[in-house]
Amino acid sequence: MLQHIHIHHFAIVDKLALDFQNGMTVLTGETGAGKSILLDALGLALGDRAESGTIRANAERAEVSAEFDINTLPAVLAWLNEHELDDDGHCLIRRTVSKDGRSRGYINGRPVSMHSLRELGEQLVDIHGQHAHQSLLKRGVQRQTLDAFASSHDKKYTKLLDNTSQCFRQWQKFTTELTQLQASREQRDDRLELLQYQVEELRVLNLATDELAELESEHTRLANLNQLREGGESILAGLSNEQSGSIIDGLDHLGAELNQLQATDPALTNASETLQGAAIQAREAASELRDYLDGLSLDPERLQTVDERLALIHELARKHHLPPAELPSLLEQQENELTSLQNASIQLDEVASAVATAEKNYHISAKKLGSARRHAAKKLGKAVTDNMHQLGMPHGVFDITLDPLETFTANGLERVEFYVTTNPGQPVQPLGKVASGGELARISLAIQVIAAGSGKIPTLIFDEVDVGIGGGIAEVVGRLLRNLSEHRQVLCVTHQPQVASLAHQHLQVSKQARQVNKQKQETVADVSPISEQARVNEIARMLGGLEITEQTLSHAREMIERGQQTLNQERARSLTTTFQEPVGLGESQ
C-alpha cells in the first residue's frame, strides 16, 4: 500500500508531505482547488509522461517520491529482486523532471528507466477515472480480471490456467524444434550427400595412425637405394678389406701391442680392454652392414606403389585443408556427423509426433478452460450489470464476449473483451467506445467490488467516480468504496458528501494566494488531513448552500455518524452482498 508521498515544486504545489492510512481515503475541496494534483503527482512518480506545467513556475525542477509497504506483495518483492533493486523490503520510487526537459527515475535510490517505473507502478497502483492508468480498457487486463474472478471462486480454474499455459509452452517448444529441423532439411540433405562421398574416400584410403611416418621412411630409403648401397660397400671395405689392411686388422694389431705393455704396467689395463672392445664392435658393425647389403635390392614397383600412396594421402589432406596425419581423426569426426544426419530423419518424425501430441493436449486443456471461462463470464457479466443499476445506470448492461483466436496462446483460445451499454435500446459495444469518463470509473468500481477478493494491485484510486450522480446513488458509491477498502487501500477524489462521510481518512485540498513580494503573488495548493470538526465543516460545505448554518452542520454530523454506525453493523458485508458473496462457477467442463 501507499504509505507516504513527498511532492516538491510540482504544478502549483510548493512542498507537500503526506502519510496515508489503510482503508478508504477521500480527497475533497472547492471546485478548482486542484484535487487531482495529488493523483497527477503520483502518476508522474509511476512513470507517466511529464506534461507542460509539471514544474512549478520559477522552479528548476519538480520532484515526487512515493513510499510503499510491499511486505505482503511477493510478486513485487520478486520483481525488485530480479532487477537487483531490492532493499530489505523497502520500496521508494522517486521521479525528477528538470526545467531543461530531462527526466530521471529512481527505485530505492538506484536510477531506472521510465519503462521500469511504469512496470513496477502497474503492480502497485491502479488509477480509475479520466487518467492514463485506465487499465480496464486493455484487453489483457480484461482477460486477467475475468480469470481472477473465476479463480477466486473455483480452484480448478487456476489449475486449468496453469495447465493450459504449460501445454502451450510444451507445444511451442516442439513446434520451434520442428520448424528448425524442417528449415535445415534441404541443407542437411546436401550435407549428407557430401559427407557420404567424403567418408567413402577416407574409408577407401584406410590410413592407419602410424602409416604415414612408415611410408615416408620407406620412400626415402627406396628413392636413395644406390647411394645406400655404394656407401655401405665402401664402409664395409674399410672395416674388413684384407688386401689393403682393414680397420679391424689394425685394431687387432694395436690391441696385441697394448696388451704386452699392460703386462709391464697394469695401469694400461682399462685402455687395453677398451681397445679390445672397439675391435669387437667393429666386427659386429661389419657383420650387420654385410647383412644389410645382402638384403638391399632394387624394387622399382614398390617405390612406385609407395609414391602413389603418399600422393593420394597428400591430395586428400589438401582437399580437406589439414595436415595428412590428421586424416584418421577427420574420418572419425565425419562418421559421427554422418550418423547424426542419418538419424535426423528419425528425429524429425519423433519431433513431429511430439508436436501432434502437444497440440492435442493443448486443445483438450484450452477447451476445458474456454468452457469454464464462458461460465465465469456469464456470472461476472450479470453481477456487474446489477451493480451498474445500483450505481445510477439503471439501463446498463455489461457483457463479456469470448471471440475464438486462430492462433494458440498461453492464455487459451479466446480473446476476452468487455462490452457495455448504458442507454436503453442500444446494443452493447466495446467498453472504451461507449462509456464516458464518469461511467467508466463507476463500471470499474462495479467490477473491482466484485473482484476485490481476487485482485492483486494493493492501491486503487478512483478519480471523481461520482460525477453526475447524487443522493442515494452517491451513498451506494460510498458504501461500495468503503467495502472495497476492506480488501485494499482506496483513494478517492469526490464531490459527494455521502462518499466523503464514509472514509477512514479525509484529506482536504485547498488553494490560496500568497505574497511573494510587494508586486507579486503566487498560487499555492495544499493537501492536509483534517480534524473531526473540520471534517464536519467540509461535509457541510459539500452539502451546499451559500451559508453554512447550524442545521447544515447538524446534517453533516448526522451523515458521518449514521454512515459509521451502519458500516460497523455491516462490517462483514455491504449493501451489495449479492455481488460480494462467492459466485459458484460449477465444475469445469
Cα gyration radius (Å): 47 Å
Q: Please summarize the sheet with the most strands.
A: 6 strands, antiparallel
Shape: elongated
| Count of β-strands | 15
- Name the strands of the widest sheet in spatial order: 2-1-4-5-6-7
Distance between the termini: 38 Å
Which structural class do you get from the secondary structure elements? alpha/beta
Average pLDDT for all residues: 84
Commentary on this structure:
- The protein has 589 residues and is α/β, with parallel strands linked by helices.
- Among the domains are: 37-129, 3-Layer(aba) Sandwich (Rossmann fold); 190-338, no CATH class.
- It is built from 19 helices and 15 strands.
- The protein has helices at 37-45, 74-82, 114-124, 139-153, 155-183, 185-205, 211-223, 225-240, 247-264, 269-295, 300-320, 327-390, 431-434, 437-451, 471-484, 497-500, 532-543, 550-569, 577-580; strands spanning 2-10, 13-19, 24-29, 61-69, 90-98, 103-107, 110-112, 125-128, 397-404, 414-421, 429-430, 459-463, 489-493, 505-515, 521-529.
- The strands form 3 sheets. The chain has a 6-stranded antiparallel beta sheet, with helices on one face. Strands 8-12-13-3-14-15 form a 6-stranded mixed beta sheet, with helices on both faces. It has a 3-stranded antiparallel beta sheet with strand order 9-10-11.
- Helix 12 (327-390) crosses helix 14.
- The chain is elongated.
- Residues 574-589 have low confidence and may be disordered.
